[in-house]
Write a structure and sequence with these properties.
homodimer; DNA-binding
Chain lengths: 252, 252
Amino acid sequence: MNHVTDGDFVSPPFRHFLARLLKHSELTSKEQEAILRLSGQVAHLAAGSDIVGPNTTIAHAHLVAQGIVARFDETKDGRRTVTSLFVPGDMCGLQSIECPMTSWGLSAFTACNVIYVPHDQLRTLIDLHPAIRRGLWTEMAIDASIQAKWTGNAFLKNSVARTAHIICELAVRMNSAGNANRTKFALKISQSSLAQSVGLTVIHMNRVLRELREKELVSTDSRMLVIKDWQGLSKLAEFDAAYLGLAGHFSS
Amino acid sequence: MNHVTDGDFVSPPFRHFLARLLKHSELTSKEQEAILRLSGQVAHLAAGSDIVGPNTTIAHAHLVAQGIVARFDETKDGRRTVTSLFVPGDMCGLQSIECPMTSWGLSAFTACNVIYVPHDQLRTLIDLHPAIRRGLWTEMAIDASIQAKWTGNAFLKNSVARTAHIICELAVRMNSAGNANRTKFALKISQSSLAQSVGLTVIHMNRVLRELREKELVSTDSRMLVIKDWQGLSKLAEFDAAYLGLAGHFSS
DNA sequence: CGGATGATTGAGAAGTCTCAACCGTGGTGG
DNA sequence: CCACCACGGTTGAGACTTCTCAATCATCCG
């Protein structure tokens, strides 16, 4: 089911990653080439399959090429929750370059392709190119900002606002990644996956989505989530894209 | 009330910070001296006062010299919640070195002393000393790991377990910082502050603490929280210090 | 056709919040 | 020195949110 191929034709995903870095960091053409020369094994993962377990020591970061990857936490009795999501162009676990023992795990949120980028390659880039180092630092800063926002939302917002917020976040992030148009954002995602990433039961998520549907903010056709009213949805969520570190590119 | 003095006698806090870095990173004596040559204005802050507001562009990181600092998030109508805590020796907001626009705010959780360390100084250290850069990177990784754990706890654990967990976390972190003995950990903290950092109302926090008291896990005398039964408390919390990145120094 | 997976609905239980009141302590001003 | 006030802690009762258990329905796929 999960298929691994050689890393020869991975250029497009790294191009994607480079475009991401260029949004906030200036890189010389040499540095850009260096990014594009990165390589790594590609894994094709079915939705739900694990990428790395918690308490694992890893030697790679994980570049999302397609689909959505989840960072998760779990209790001793196996209940899981999603603590972050990563969209195409995101490099998951840049922290692990210096801290290779993970407390979290990664799994395929949807079916996805992931490139295993060796820490060694990244370390070399960081050592040789200060601008790349700064770019990766910024990526980590954005990751941290998102994580803090999730914690805040968990404490401050109810199930409906939290759900609306994560939908807005994914819309903007995938839009920024060039994968979707924000106003016509559509996401193929199961209710149980969504529930896990907002800290709700599937059953309650079902009722939350019904409410969002009744308010004409989203529609759900054949497991496809579509934003029908961005203004209304982002207002309900109190969504402000500033924390995504995109420097006003999506000020609405 | 908040008093700022010149940065001449700040050596002890930076010694503390250095000791923190040495827990996970090897630094030459030159590098250690470079850390100790850092400087910055010292602010003495009353509990509850703001350090930086959300959506501010900053030019400093904030080294906690004494007391506890909170990273917070707030809604438009002013309700606040704490998303992270920082204990003495922590450098808050290392991310801001490359991403100076904060989406979060910082405030004094307890009365505390904070040193404003200019980004410039940190950037210079990072550029000159790869080992220091790696040390700071590791600090950010730990920060991220803690933040992810908080998100997970918010979704997975009920009020009692979450409260127990944060008490355990603070005990270990302050212990690691050399401020307290874990088994005799005591913290002067109001119930409302604690409530804000676990996402509960004060009233419910009161009942949670009563439960922890009735189970003989903690005691609360004159606003001082004391751990009476570390084993029981950490078991109830499902606390595993691995996520604090202390590499087994506190394996229990 | 049968089975698996995901979506939907209902009803009752549990957890947490809100409002309201009261208590205890420490500090302040008369 | 004492009265008073402000603040944090404590308790109760009822409302609201979310969970749990249980059942049914729809769709897709072999």
